[in-house]
Amino acid sequence: MESNSPALLKVENLSKKFLIKKSLLKKEFFKAVDNVSFSLGYNQVLGIVGESGSGKSTIGRLILKLIKKDEGKIEFEGKDIYSLTGKEEKLFRKETSIVFQDPKTSLNPRFKIRQIIEEPLLIHGFPKKERKERVKTAIKDAGLDESFLDRYPSELSGGQRQRVAIARAIVLDPKMIVADEPTSALDVSVQLQIINLIKKLRTEKKISFLFISHDLNVVGMLSDRILVLYRGKIMEKGDARDILKKPAHPYTKILLDSLPPEHPKDRKKLDYLPEVYREEVEGGCVFYSRCPIATDICKKEPQYTKIDNREVYCHFA
Ligand SMILES: Nc1ncnc2c1ncn2[C@@H]1O[C@H](COP(=O)(O)OP(=O)(O)OP(=O)(O)O)[C@@H](O)[C@H]1O
């Protein structure tokens, strides 16, 4: 079930496959995103969680039109993003932005911080005076003082660099930011600072975030709703607190149980879970081979079951 607030972003049946092998006789594709639907409300944080390769970044890139979808529909403020042209397209680019995992590689090392933050304003044709003001405001809003503007990325710590990446992402006053593993390259204490900064921007600037992470603990700290992804498919989506308190899908349970033991005391670590229990079955549940509770019924693909405020891809939900 989606939230009751009107959607800023609405994604319906989104799919994307990548060509992985091509020979004279046939082409082989890999389904990175498989029939995914969700929405993101105004001033909300939606967490997308799943292990490496589950399709999280591909979803992020699809909704920002950085890559092309194969199937499905993506609406931003009620408009199909693939039908935008001219001014509307430009506005969409202005109102959406991205923060990547590693600020070391995402910031141009030859640019001063001032130039890095100013670049989107130049692209969008802002006059000089306004550019200057906006750059100052953005760096302050990202929690750094103006003295950083004359430095280079190499002179900054990892956390400071990520603040610069965030300043650049907010400088055009976007409505939505895709934050793709923004804390994964940082130490735990710095991670918390960045999470708090995102919370602040959401509250004070009313920015919605699509927060992508492999770490359910991190996602749980700031998301209103969570979408759990496995091999491109949604396993479970719903209210963050509900999911963290009572995960309904066996995969979500594994993600929760594999969090460090100092998190809720009663979590036992499922070290005994083998990676693969059984052979995959074509046309069956995508989690079949790794599911601790699968039975023969799981050789058939499950439908999404709606329970309370949640949708779960499991025969046993
Ligand atoms: N351009 C591409 N060509 C071929 N395969 C791709 C391409 N981009 C992504 N993939 C594959 O699609 C799958 C999903 O990748 P994606 O980066 O979305 O996963 P992820 O959940 O974000 O994981 P990670 O955190 O490791 O990036 C992976 O198996 C990846 O190898």
UniProtKB/TrEMBL annotation:
<dbReference type="InterPro" id="IPR050319">
    <property type="entry name" value="ABC_transp_ATP-bind"/>
</dbReference>
<dbReference type="InterPro" id="IPR003593">
    <property type="entry name" value="AAA+_ATPase"/>
</dbReference>
<dbReference type="InterPro" id="IPR013563">
    <property type="entry name" value="Oligopep_ABC_C"/>
</dbReference>
<feature type="domain" description="ABC transporter">
    <location>
        <begin position="9"/>
        <end position="256"/>
    </location>
</feature>
<dbReference type="GO" id="GO:0055085">
    <property type="term" value="P:transmembrane transport"/>
</dbReference>
<keyword id="KW-0547">Nucleotide-binding</keyword>
<dbReference type="Pfam" id="PF00005">
    <property type="entry name" value="ABC_tran"/>
</dbReference>
<dbReference type="GO" id="GO:0005524">
    <property type="term" value="F:ATP binding"/>
</dbReference>
<dbReference type="InterPro" id="IPR003439">
    <property type="entry name" value="ABC_transporter-like_ATP-bd"/>
</dbReference>
<dbReference type="InterPro" id="IPR027417">
    <property type="entry name" value="P-loop_NTPase"/>
</dbReference>
<dbReference type="Pfam" id="PF08352">
    <property type="entry name" value="oligo_HPY"/>
</dbReference>
<dbReference type="GO" id="GO:0016887">
    <property type="term" value="F:ATP hydrolysis activity"/>
</dbReference>
<dbReference type="GO" id="GO:0015833">
    <property type="term" value="P:peptide transport"/>
</dbReference>
<dbReference type="InterPro" id="IPR017871">
    <property type="entry name" value="ABC_transporter-like_CS"/>
</dbReference>
<keyword id="KW-0813">Transport</keyword>
<keyword id="KW-0067">ATP-binding</keyword>
<protein>
    <submittedName>
        <fullName>Peptide/nickel transport system ATP-binding protein/oligopeptide transport system ATP-binding protein</fullName>
    </submittedName>
</protein>
